[in-house]
Amino acid sequence: MSVTESGGAPAPKIAIVASEAEAAQAALADLQRRYPTVPLDEADVIVALGGDGFMLETLHRHLERHLPIFGMHRGSVGFLMNSYSPDHLFERLAKADTERLHPLAMQATTTDGKCHQALAINEVALLRQTRQMAKIRISVDGVRRMDELMCDGVMVATPAGSTAYNLSAHGPIIPFGSGVLALTPISAFRPRRWRGAILPHHVTVTFEMLEPQKRPISAGADFIEVRNVMRVEVRETREVSLSLLFDHEHNLSERVLKEQFES
To answer: What's this model's pTM, rounded to 2 decimal places?
Structure first.
């Protein structure tokens, strides 16, 4: 007999994945005892158990599948996760709100002329590789906006990433649906008082490394790092859409709003 939601509608086929953390593995075993599951290639929904890092890994791993992902917190940081409870899983899925995310597309050219491409759900961050401070020129849609930024680094963050590394670098928290990205310096030396910019989500940001041989810089798109970059272009890609599911009473938009009032 098939499992049904309250009201008699067929329940979605779920696949459950978990991080290696002990709490996540224990939750995986518990949920697999309670609910029928299917292989990932047969699933309608992925249930992810872990922290935000594991959620990012899961999103990247299943980019091509376009499946909604319902995370439950069994890790360290759980901003992108729902609270964990083994009860009423199908009811929670049926009532969940959907947040759609569009990642950043990074195109990085290294000093040896090679081109690397990657997607970032949280941020694209440029960081100095040595004790030498980075020197970076910034253009937006082909218009030079800063001739020289001297800093430890600089990043472009999505709303999903605005509460992560971006917030730690004193960047702004961006509400979902606001249609903007954060451009945030990391330990800016000159201009010393520059705190970054809020940019429309459709722009292309270009970073040109000044003195890349003397001051080597790496570019990271979430977990993917490219070292010794010379030029980096970043833009939001609307061609890729990711779906996260959240309990209605604790949806992501509410969390972002609440985070802005935390001390």
So the answer is: 0.88
